[in-house]
């Protein structure tokens, strides 16, 4: 052990100096060695006032940085570059990215951008208001229908590329599932952006109010006699019968009879003669008139009064 210790301490300071010099030379050599790293360049497109582009104003490019390792320490993981879009130009433009546009770039390093070109479509930015259209998916439960749909808001403002925005007629909602619905419901639905060139919507969601009612059918009732009312004279009418079509729920229509309807022509004040008049109808409650055929009748007012 004593011999080993003597070997270690013999010329100790000389050995320590040698070790220091060896580490110094190693560090210098390592620092001078050329090193390569893949980097990402975040490109910020700077637009003239009043203009916009299709897509993002921030683009990403891949690059390779090459240089002494000691200098590479200060290179950030993501590089940032600003590229100005020329004023007054519209349509498709091709811009070139070089190292001179990279912020804080060390000129002693080499930078290779794999695809230095950026292709964009530039146009004036405009704002436009369009209506919102709901998209329904599925069907209500059997015996029910959607009677009314109300949207809040009903319109939305868009900002974007003039050429693209002028083609937009409406903004639609995401599909709204109404399968097996039986009662009124309020649903919050997302709006779907019309696509390229549209940069902003004034609203991201819309409230959809669904009014649900019983399913309705149409039913026609024929041979309803036409009456003349309000005349002091004897009268004749052609046609003497009409057919009436109404809409309602099956539960209501199944119990309605022909006698529940009334068709008549107002003849008050008419002197003897021949007239074409509207045929008016009265229908049962909880039904909606769809059609009365024919709509007009020929009334003949005779000279003889009813009291004669």
TrEMBL record:
InterPro entries: c-di-AMP_regulator (IPR053154), YbbR (IPR012505). It comes from the Bacteria. This is YbbR-like protein. It comes from Pseudobacteriovorax antillogorgiicola.
């Amino acid at each position: 052990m004593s011999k080993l210790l003597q070997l270690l301490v013999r010329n100790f300071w000389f050995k320590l100096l040698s070790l220091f010099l060896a580490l110094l030379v190693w560090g210098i050599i390592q620092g001078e060695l050329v090193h390569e790293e893949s980097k990402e360049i975040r490109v910020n497109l700077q637009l003239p006032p009043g203009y916009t582009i299709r897509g993002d104003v921030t683009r990403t490019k891949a690059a390779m940085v090459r240089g002494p390792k000691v200098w590479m320490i200060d290179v950030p993981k993501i590089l940032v570059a600003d590229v100005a879009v020329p004023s007054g130009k519209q349509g498709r433009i091709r811009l070139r990215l070089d190292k001179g546009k990279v912020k804080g770039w060390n000129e002693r390093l080499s930078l290779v951008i794999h695809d230095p070109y950026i292709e964009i479509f530039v146009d004036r930015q405009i704002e436009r208001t369009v209506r919102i259209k709901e998209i329904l998916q599925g069907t209500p439960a059997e015996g029910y229908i959607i009677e009314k749909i109300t949207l809040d808001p009903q319109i939305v403002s868009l900002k974007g590329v003039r050429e693209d925005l002028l083609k937009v007629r409406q903004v639609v909602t995401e599909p709204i599932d109404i399968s097996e619905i039986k009662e009124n419901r309020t649903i919050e639905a997302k709006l779907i952006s019309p696509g390229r060139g549209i940069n902003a919507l004034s609203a991201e969601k819309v409230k959809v109010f669904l009014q649900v009612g019983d399913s309705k059918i149409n039913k026609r009732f024929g041979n309803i006699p036409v009456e003349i009312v309000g005349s002091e004279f004897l009268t004749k009418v052609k046609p003497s019968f009409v057919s009436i079509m109404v809409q309602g729920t099956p539960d209501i229509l199944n119990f309605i009879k022909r006698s529940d309807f009334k068709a008549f022509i107002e003849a008050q004040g008419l002197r003897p003669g021949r007239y074409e008049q509207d045929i008016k109808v009265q229908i049962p409650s909880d039904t909606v008139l769809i059609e009365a055929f024919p709509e007009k009748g020929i009334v003949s007012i005779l000279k003889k009064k009813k009291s004669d």
